[in-house]
Design goal:
466 residues; alpha+beta; Uridine Diphospho-n-acetylenolpyruvylglucosamine Reductase, domain 2; Uridine Diphospho-n-acetylenolpyruvylglucosamine Reductase, domain 3; 4 domains; seven-stranded antiparallel β-sheet; 15 helices; 20% strand; FAD-linked_Oxase-like_C
Length: 466
């Protein structure tokens, strides 16, 4: 489809809709940051950026864009890693970061109603200050809640509590034609027709623009303890995970990491990790409402780890110790990024009992293609984050090796009955891998869903299944 470029007449009309010229950016006033997300490799400047402040403004802009066939890309903090917020057809970026108000804490229905630009870390602090708990815990705490919903973000606590979709009760959504709908609500159960809410969650801004979200909360667990468990090698560490999961002591998080990632984090943060001598580690967290409950759970798992070949079990039972460990884990991505000139990511998910097989395969690829690869991830739910590093490779060699390594990884994930993305989404960068991993009928259904929401294909075009 051919999209209309934003001209002077369009710009004048948009400014009249917003009634605030300072929130409409064009030409040299548009920051280069709007041309990409954290991936960096996919870039395109928009014609205009509109910093919206209300659902009404979003609705008016979408109606105008729809009537005039102008491409629109919704955007939050831009922390994505698949180019989903990049305006690959130019046009309009709707920046939702000014819509950042926490609207209501309903302690009777255990819900929190927020605007799309509220940051994950703001939600976590607000509800904990009020003795509640929002379990989804993606690594990027400066992501907006709408970004989390659009990618169905998971994070470290998914093994026990589930992913973002499990905590979205209701949404207010502006459709591509400018109409505003409300889906779901504060109700706990809902069997009233097709679940449009669950289609919006994970749709990466291609079906509608989220302007309000009602989130499910839980009572705040009173006690939390982490275990750092060193192993002689990664195989032994990861092979221990199914034994932990099969026990009746389900951890809140089960992360795996290797020494290289820890050393990089130590260097990046400028402080020592509690133990960085072993080849591989499991990092586990347990939470509950009493010290006795949590101790019983971690004692049981500690025994399982020792019996499986762990070198030791280090207990972090103070806030300071836990902060030391988890701050290092949280810095892995930035530490890896700072160690190289460019990188790209693979965010595959495989069955939990295939994690060890896949990690071995990654090491084989590193040797086969003579390229640095770093990995860590959520061993408890089979979601691995693998980073291919450019270092000093020239552009031609880098692109060739990158494509070959990625092809091998996604093929192996498919062989292991895995999927292209566990939590970061498909966006623009991973479209080709999705199209080769899904059957034709599934892809056709996705395209038909997109067409039913957006017949003119103006909202975030060229992403996911297109």
């Amino acid at each position: 489809m051919t999209y209309k470029n934003v001209d002077k007449k369009d710009l004048e009309y948009i400014v009249s809709l917003i009634n605030d010229e300072e929130r409409v950016l064009f030409g040299e006033n548009i920051s280069e940051d709007y041309s990409h997300d954290e991936l960096g490799a996919v870039k395109k400047m928009p014609d205009v950026v509109i910093k919206v402040s209300s659902t009404e403004e979003v609705s008016k802009i979408m109606k105008y864009a729809y009537d005039n066939s102008i491409a629109v890309t919704p955007r939050g903090s831009g922390t994505g890693l698949v180019g989903a917020a990049v305006p690959i057809h130019g046009g309009i970026i709707i920046d939702l970061t000014l819509m950042n108000q926490i609207l209501e804490l309903d302690d009777e229905n255990l819900t929190l109603t927020v605007e799309p630009g509220v940051l994950l870390m703001e939600i976590a602090k607000f509800v904990e200050d009020n003795d509640f708990f929002y379990p989804p815990d993606p690594g990027e705490k400066t992501a907006t809640i709408a970004g989390n919903i659009n990618t169905n973000a998971g994070g470290m606590r998914a093994v026990k509590y589930g992913v973002t979709r499990d905590y979205v009760r209701g949404l207010e959504v502006v459709l591509p034609n400018g109409e505003v709908i409300e889906v779901g609500g504060k109700v706990v159960k809902n069997s009233s027709g097709y679940s449009i809410k669950d289609l919006i969650v994970g749709s990466e801004g291609t079906l509608g623009i989220i302007t309000k979200a009602i989130l499910k909360l839980l009572p705040l667990p009173k006690k939390k303890i982490s275990l750092l468990v060193p192993f002689e090698n990664l195989d032994t560490a990861i092979e221990t995970v199914p034994k932990i999961i099969k026990s009746k002591s389900i951890p809140t998080a089960v992360e795996f990491m290797q020494r290289e990632a820890i050393v990089a984090a130590e260097k990046f943060l400028g402080k020592a990790f509690p133990d960085s001598q072993s080849d591989a580690y499991l990092l586990l967290t347990f939470d509950g409402n009493s010290e006795e409950e949590v101790e019983k759970a971690y004692d049981n798992v500690a025994k399982i780890c020792i019996e499986a070949g762990a070198i030791d079990v280090l207990i972090s039972d103070t806030e300071e110790r836990q902060e030391g460990i988890w701050s290092a884990r949280g810095a892995f991505l930035e530490a890896i990024k700072s160690s190289t000139t460019e990188m790209d990511e693979v965010d595959v998910v495989v069955p939990r009992n295939k994690v060890a097989v896949f990690v071995k395969f990654i090491h084989e690829l590193e040797n086969k293609f003579d390229i640095r690869i770093r990995s860590f991830g959520h061993a408890g739910d089979g979601n691995l984050h693998i980073y291919i590093l450019r270092d000093d490779l020239d552009e031609t060699t880098w692109n060739k090796k990158l494509n070959e390594v990625m092809d091998c990884m996604y093929k192996e994930a498919s062989n292991l009955n895995g999927l292209v993305s566990g939590e970061h989404g498909i966006g623009y960068a991973k479209k080709s891998y999705l199209s080769t991993s899904l059957d034709k009928e599934s892809l056709n259904l996705m395209k038909a869903i997109k067409l039913s929401f957006d017949p003119k294909n103006i909202l975030n075009p060229g992403k996911v299944c297109q």
